[in-house]
Design brief:
- Chains A, B: It comes from Nonomuraea dietziae.
- Two copies of one chain form a homodimer.
- Chain A has about 200 residues and is an all-alpha fold.
- The first copy, chain A, folds into two domains: about 70 residues, Orthogonal Bundle (Tetracycline Repressor, domain 2); about 120 residues, Tetracycline Repressor, domain 2, CATH 1.10.357.10.
- The longest helix of chain A is centred in the middle third of the chain and has 27 residues.
- Chain A starts with 10 loop residues before the first helix and ends in a 7-residue tail after the last helix.
- The relative contact order of chain A is 0.11.
- Chains A and B meet through helix 8 and helix 9 of A and helix 8 and helix 9 of B.
- Chain B binds a DNA duplex (30 and 30 nucleotides) through helix 1 and helix 3.
DNA sequence: GCTGTAACGCAACTTGGAGTTGCAATGGAT
DNA sequence: ATCCATTGCAACTCCAAGTTGCGTTACAGC
């Protein structure tokens, strides 16, 4: 607890180094992936000596985990526009924005280049997926109540149908992901839901 | 060229070793991923000495690439049942079968744990995705001609909509992927296409 | 502006897996 | 039974991870 009170000194240098290292780690993740990320490479890019990294972070995994730590800063509010169409569009757009931002791209790079089971990365994944999905489910529930979607529409299935095309392009094909992708994903999920293809089993 | 004629001897031992090493490589890929795959680990599992691997394969990358080489054996015929619904169902089912089979799981593990840019792996990916997608496009074209789908439906978009939920579960969530997944993916893609959400822009 | 101390730079380690080499042992085809 | 390609084995080099001891720098407080 209160780490501020008994170590009030030397915050300037430390903070600068930490930020530089975080930025360097994210950049290396995006450029080379986790497998090819070396501690010396990060140190060099951050303009810092290797030993300094090992004094502040336990190992390579901690380094990456910490750089990805506060994904909560990227967390977006859940829309409630009164229309399922614009709600879904908004959800898709913020997903695209998140995953094309540097931190999102670094998270993807980490998760899909060998760091999937690193504790910190797995936690970041949970934060971005599970939590976000759970928080978005009321959007679907409200649409069902308003009669915009068929009774029995599965919120989880609909949200997965919304996100799947975006991730498919990000991970499998390598097609550009932009607002048009979000738009089409929203329309696709909406059409399927209206047709009753996303009902609870 | 004719490698059979001037090296007719010693095929028995070599073939046995090759098969054992291939199997061991695929197993290690699935269990640990590419990043954590060690040559000594493969050698140990295959019951073979490390040096033997380095004499038959140039390096770790070649080892993995060769183990994944003949994905053509997994290639499935393109359905033409006369109905887009059963065609899509069949496509989704064979996709699920392919990706839950040992070789498919190993391919996924290789592609998404650090070996994405290894030449042989990239080629296998191309073979499984691009080629297969291109070959499946006539299925959609025929359905449009039959009037089952709206004019202007984009074959590529429809096939991506079909595959996306499957890969989403395989790669992002870790939900089980089975016939039900295939069924739902087919219904989802079909509903979206019928609603005109997958038209060419 | 001076000083004390925490944080940093530096060099020299150990460890472990990739990849190599020379030589001895083995086993299948003839 | 013999031959020789293939395999087993041990002893290497190389590189990045991670560690340690000590000298150096730069900020906080006075």
């Amino acid at each position: 607890m209160d780490s501020e009170s008994h170590r009030p000194r030397q915050v300037g240098r430390g903070a600068k180094v930490r930020d530089a290292v975080h930025a360097a780690t994210l950049a290396e993740l995006v450029e080379k992936g986790y497998a090819a990320l070396t501690v010396e490479g990060v140190a060099l890019r951050a303009g810092v000596h290797k030993t300094t990294l090992y004094r502040r972070w336990a190992d390579r995994e901690s380094l990456v985990a910490d750089a990805l730590a506060d994904l909560s800063a990227m967390d977006v509010p859940i829309p409630d526009t009164g229309s399922i169409e614009s709600d879904l569009r908004e959800l898709a757009r913020s997903l695209v924005r998140m995953m094309t931002a540097p931190k999102g791209r670094a998270l993807l790079a980490a998760m899909f280049s060998g760091a999937a089971d690193v504790p910190g990365v797995a936690e970041a994944r949970r934060q971005v997926f599970d939590d976000r999905f759970r928080r978005a489910e009321p959007v679907v529930a409200r649409a069902v109540e308003r009669g915009e979607l068929p009774e029995g529409t599965d919120p989880s299935e609909l949200l997965k149908a919304l996100a799947a095309p975006v991730y498919f392009r990000l991970l499998v094909t390598g097609d550009p992901v932009d607002e048009i992708t979000a738009e089409r994903a929203a329309l696709l999920a909406l059409a399927a839901a209206r047709a009753g293809a996303l009902r609870r089993r």
